[in-house]
Design brief:
Length: 69
């Protein structure tokens, strides 16, 4: 999912998964490509048995965050 913080920045959010103790978590990273830096990263408190479940939950969380803007 891509998001624009303002017209002068190229800011994008990405959902990734990471393995943690045999289960998976989602990681949402907000990157400002114009400034070439990571602005923020969030990791789920919940764990998931399957990578796809973590990815789906992360995508849903990111979508909810975007709607709150």
């Amino acid at each position: 999912m891509n998001t624009q913080a303002n017209d002068s920045e190229d800011v994008r959010a990405f959902v990734q998964t990471a393995e943690q103790a045999g289960e998976y978590v989602w990681v949402i990273t907000l990157v400002d490509f114009g400034a070439q830096k990571v602005k923020r990263a969030m990791v789920s408190d919940d764990t998931f048995a399957m990578r796809a479940a973590a990815q789906d939950a992360g995508e849903a969380h990111l979508k909810a965050l975007a709607q709150d803007r």
